[in-house]
Amino acid sequence: MAVTLINVFSVPVGKEDEFVTWWHDVKANITKRPGFISGKFHKSLKPESRYNFINIALWESEELYWQAYEQSAAPMKGKLDQLGIEMTPALYAVAFEY
């Protein structure tokens, strides 16, 4: 069953451009992983929002997502810590459509 990753980021003022540039590199790696379907990267219209960036990605299965996560989590965490960015990821399944 497909799952949706919703990953919210709190990026400090002044670090936004560096974060977006870095995310392009992350994206190039993630999109090559088995199970990745698609993704969208969102930026808040209000810069003062606590979570000013949100990544939403669809994966073929929870198992394939966790395999990709295990391979990329450590390098990502180091860069996020360096930039002072808070990341809160979670997986979701569709409850219903409307």
Note down, in words, how this protein is organized:
- The chain is of the alpha+beta class.
- The chain has one domain (3-92): Alpha-Beta Plaits (2-Layer Sandwich), CATH 3.30.70.
- 38% of the residues lie in helices and 31% in strands.
- The protein has helices spanning 16-30, 62-83, and strands spanning 3-10, 36-43, 53-59, 86-92.
- It has a four-stranded antiparallel β-sheet with strand order 2-3-1-4, with helices on one face.
- α1 runs antiparallel to α2 (62-83).
- It is globular and about 40 Å long.
Give the tags.
98 residues; alpha+beta; Alpha-Beta Plaits; 38% helix; 31% strand; globular
What low-confidence regions span 5 or more consecutive residues with pLDDT below 50?
none
CATH class: Alpha Beta
Number of helices: 2
Tally of domains? 1
Sketch the major β-sheet: 4 strands, antiparallel
At a glance:
By secondary structure, the protein is α+β, with helices and mostly antiparallel strands. Strands 2-3-1-4 form a 4-stranded antiparallel beta sheet, covered by helices on one side.
